[in-house]
Recover the amino acids of this structure.
């Protein structure tokens, strides 16, 4: 997962502070590589091997993992363990050279990753390993680093094993960047590890890509189309790399890992054929998690953000246990799982251990992207100790989150940015996107519809609404709120969306307080306004009641995904029913 990010020393700094102050320890055994100062590039270019001989693969049940301490690699660890493999972590260049199988799950930005590889001797060891046709699998950035160079914060030289330059997607072509979601592969012959994909979708999340050329065509095992054709996987001999995330691509992704780990495994049966042809619309299951009055962590659901039962007891609505529900939604076909910790604003985030445990346990058996939000902000505890939002986010990433959702803190940052016109770099949104990349940061917007008589009545973006207000008003603006919808702010959803995109958000989760829990459909006016105004993906949320509401929002707006909660929790509408309906309406989905 490549990113526009700060040097790895920034990550290390946050990890050192976190480790020394809170007893939370960095999980990466190779994070010691990051304790070196960034002192220039020093990249060397290696000549691409002209021919590779295929070696017999090892029958050992262990795999060597090059984890240099950035982002979420818990998922690839969990996937490997799920497939019955133990993990050896790279500590020295010699560990690479001695590996029977090597997986490089690249996370972070191109330049800092190359710095780490060069200054630790890993770059030369990797090139020697690959030139000797040893079993290798690079994932996302682990593919990009094999090329000659990248334009990301560059140009920056890569390992130089494959001809070509890694460049950014061209958003002027009408596509949304980052490329986030489930897309189709055009698989070539002799791809080997893709033999069981069977024309089904796999999960991508990236802003940079490598383009096919005459010089690198012999390496390419598959391509993908997103505004243009780009390289989605390479293979030469025992050397493989993929731009997508197999550890986040469900059973299809596990089949890719299984094929790499067992290259001689005979096909027991023809893989189930899918109908993947392009980027699919995503269906996301959301779990609002909080402690109930008994202290148990439960999934609840609000009615216009009120999560308590309308009864004499007035108890928190309990719809199930978060880990169990997430596991069931994964089996039911959810494309992503989103956890919203709605007690996060009351409690100290790093002390919110139950939510950390939810992520850790969920990620053991759920192999689709996980997002977590709630309480991710800077904080000063009672003793005066300051914790940055980056430290809070780091612990969530290490616990299995792929994306972080920021709410109230993003509103305050946007207000300040609009007022001053200056990016301070200090907001949680800016800090996290700078280190982990904008594809790892979702901004959750909680607006409320405010009707007006005339577009000039307020200094915010006003639209003509489909359904007039209670007094016949034909216009409305959408006022953003904070603190779980309890406080309105002097900023509209349109203004907020534009500002957070500029500040580094990679995706917008667009809620609507008026529609929440009503089951009457998404606010199409709102979703169209925001999805037409930004160049990043928008997730429609709030109001789904029937499968037809999903097809409506996808047909009438440019939403990339649609999210629901209550109708899934209460088993009123199964996820599979939603996808079958979307297929009938000729809307591409992952099946």
């Amino acid at each position: 997962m490549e990113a526009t990010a700060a040097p790895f020393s920034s990550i290390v700094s946050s990890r050192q502070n976190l480790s020394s102050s809170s007893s939370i320890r960095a999980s990466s055994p190779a994070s010691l590589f990051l304790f070196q100062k960034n002192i220039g590039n020093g990249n060397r270019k290696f000549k691409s091997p002209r021919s590779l001989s295929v070696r017999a693969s090892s029958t050992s049940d262990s795999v060597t993992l090059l984890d240099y301490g950035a982002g979420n690699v818990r998922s690839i660890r969990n996937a490997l363990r799920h497939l019955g493999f133990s993990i050896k972590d790279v500590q020295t260049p010699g560990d690479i050279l001695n590996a029977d199988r090597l997986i490089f799950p690249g996370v972070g930005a191109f330049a800092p990753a190359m710095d780490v590889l060069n200054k630790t001797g890993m770059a030369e060891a990797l090139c020697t390993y690959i030139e000797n046709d040893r079993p290798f699998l690079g994932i996302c950035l682990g593919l990009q680093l094999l090329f000659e160079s990248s334009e990301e914060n560059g140009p920056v030289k890569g390992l130089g094993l494959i001809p070509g330059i890694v460049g950014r997607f061209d958003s002027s072509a009408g596509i949304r960047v980052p490329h986030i979601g489930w897309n189709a592969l055009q698989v070539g012959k002799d791809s080997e590890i893709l033999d069981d994909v069977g024309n089904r979708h796999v999960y991508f999340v990236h802003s940079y890509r490598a383009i096919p050329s005459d010089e690198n065509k012999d390496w390419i095992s598959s391509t993908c189309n997103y505004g243009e054709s780009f390289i989605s996987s390479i293979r030469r001999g025992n050397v493989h790399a993929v731009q997508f995330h197999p550890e986040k691509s469900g059973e299809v992704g596990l089949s890719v890992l299984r094929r790499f780990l067992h290259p001689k495994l005979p096909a027991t049966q023809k893989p189930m054929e899918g109908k993947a042809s392009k980027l699919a619309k995503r269906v996301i299951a959301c779990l609002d998690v909080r402690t109930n009055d008994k202290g148990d962590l439960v999934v609840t659901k609000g009615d216009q953000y009120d999560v308590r039962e309308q009864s004499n007891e007035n108890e928190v609505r309990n719809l199930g246990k978060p880990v169990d529900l997430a596991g069931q939604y994964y089996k039911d076909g959810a494309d992503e799982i989103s956890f919203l910790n709605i007690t996060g604003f009351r409690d100290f985030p790093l002390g919110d251990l139950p939510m950390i445990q939810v992520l850790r346990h969920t990620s053991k058996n759920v192999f689709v992207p996980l997002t977590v939000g709630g309480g991710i902000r800077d904080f000063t505890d009672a003793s005066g100790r300051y914790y940055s939002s980056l430290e809070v986010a780091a612990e969530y990433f290490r616990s299995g989150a792929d994306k972080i959702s920021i709410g109230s803190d993003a509103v305050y940052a946007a207000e300040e940015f609009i007022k001053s016109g200056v990016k301070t770099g200090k907001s949680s949104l800016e800090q996290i996107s700078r280190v982990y990349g904008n594809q790892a940061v979702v901004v959750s917007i909680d607006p409320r519809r405010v009707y007006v008589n005339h577009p000039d009545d307020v200094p915010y973006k006003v639209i003509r609404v489909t359904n007039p207000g209670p007094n016949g008003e034909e216009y409305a603006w959408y006022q953003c709120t904070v603190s779980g919808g309890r406080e309105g702010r002097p900023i509209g959803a349109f203004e907020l969306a534009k500002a957070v995109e500029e500040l580094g958000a990679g995706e917008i989760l667009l809620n609507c307080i008026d529609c929440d829990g009503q089951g009457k459909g998404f606010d199409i006016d709102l979703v169209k306004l925001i999805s037409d105004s930004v160049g990043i993906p928008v997730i429609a949320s709030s109001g789904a009641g029937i499968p037809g509401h999903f097809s409506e929002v996808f047909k009438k707006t440019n939403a990339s995904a649609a999210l629901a909660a209550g109708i899934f929790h209460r088993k009123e509408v199964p996820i599979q029913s939603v996808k079958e309906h979307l297929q009938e309406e000729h809307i591409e989905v992952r099946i």
